Amino acid sequence: MESLHRPTRIIVHKKAIQENIANELARLPKGRELFAVVKANGYGHGAVAVAQAAIAGGATGLCVATIDEGIQLREAGFTEPILILGVISPLYLPLVAEYQLAFPVGSLAWLTKAAKFLQETPVAQPLLVHLKVDSGMGRIGFSTPVEVSEAVAKIAQIPQMVFEGIFTHFATADEAETSYYETQAQHFADCLAILDQLPRYVHCDNSASALWHDQPLGNMVRYGVALYGLNPSGGTLEASYPLQPALELVSRLVQVKQVTAGTGIGYGKTYTSSQDEWIGTVPIGYADGWIRKMQGFKVLVAGQFCEIVGRVCMDQIMIRLPQAFPEDTLVTLVGENGGQRITLQDVADQQETIHYEVACLLSSRIPREYID
Ligand SMILES: *Cc1c(COP(=O)(O)O)cnc(C)c1O
């Protein structure tokens, strides 16, 4: 549930999303389409608003992880192609038909089950199938060209199914070393070569592949994390255009107090003031996804970095201020403040993880606001 009556907010800049898409489209070979990946509530940014910005920016389709995420977009009024990226149960074929959600097929056993199910439960609308090739991710998909051609033959026997796409996913597109990437690309090319006719969509690029590889295969890219202005490599590789971060995380000081030397702060008294200090309380905590590992990180108040002191609580943190700031002063946890900047990558470094995870785990308690 969103907590609206509290100053903690995620602010999403739609312009940044549109700029990132425009820059990517300018980089891509002419005619290649861009589907915006808005799974996991738009990587925590808000799926519907991100999808709107992405379509306005030139995306011609959307990708989600689950059926429910697809339905959410249809109910919000999107009529563009929507592709589910995860395996669905054959039991839900009537649902994906009804909402015209394309979905992946990655095994012959799945096709057999689906065919059987459809004999008893016919569906009225076409089922939009994208064959998934496992070219080296070891996740979902057919492993060999022979399996792919068997799948195509099987799909042709199921009257409700339309062979709309074929795709694969790269495991190392964000790395400087490209040999495994090239092995995967070759494997995918081998699977395409066996087809008499290519389907409407052929796609293999995620953000990293779209940014750093001039991939001759495919006519569409699945553009995810870079759409949000985040570098898929975490900074190891530089993007060929400046990625514009879309997300800001802000709050306000709800109390400011001066403590004397020797005062304990927070659960477990893990911090003790060494002199007279100004301590500010900020209403965000681990229940918002601002996890306990953020202890010791610095947030921005009036352009100055202020350390989070004491343990992160469920709903609050305490920060050491260089001076007495008035209550209600803006606190920036991610974003720019007074000429200084904190990025999701900085937060990820502190948490020893990747920015994808940080963004996704910002909880639904924090309201998302959108700026054009
Ligand atoms: C999540 C996902 C993407 C997008 O990846 P990014 O690294 O965010 O660009 C593309 N394709 C598949 C299959 C995915 O699961």
TrEMBL record:
Residues of the Alanine racemase C-terminal domain: 246-371
Residues the record marks as active site: K39, Y267
Positions bearing N6-(pyridoxal phosphate)lysine: K39
Catalytic activity as recorded in UniProt: L-alanine = D-alanine
Keywords: Isomerase, Pyridoxal phosphate
InterPro entries: Ala_racemase, Ala_racemase/Decarboxylase_C, Ala_racemase_C, Ala_racemase_N, Ala_racemase_pyridoxalP-BS, PLP-binding_barrel
EC number(s) given by UniProt: 5.1.1.1
Pathway: Amino-acid biosynthesis; D-alanine biosynthesis; D-alanine from L-alanine: step 1/1
Entries under Gene3D superfamilies matching the protein: Alanine racemase (3.20.20.10), Lyase, Ornithine Decarboxylase, Chain A, domain 1 (2.40.37.10)
Superkingdom classification of source: Bacteria
Needed co-factor(s): pyridoxal 5'-phosphate
Binding site for substrate: R139, M314
Keyword Protease: no
Record bears the keyword Cytoplasm: no
Role played: Catalyzes the interconversion of L-alanine and D-alanine. May also act on other amino acids.
HAMAP family to which the protein is assigned, alphabetical: Ala_racemase
Similarity comment: Belongs to the alanine racemase family.
Name the UniProt record assigns to this protein: Alanine racemase
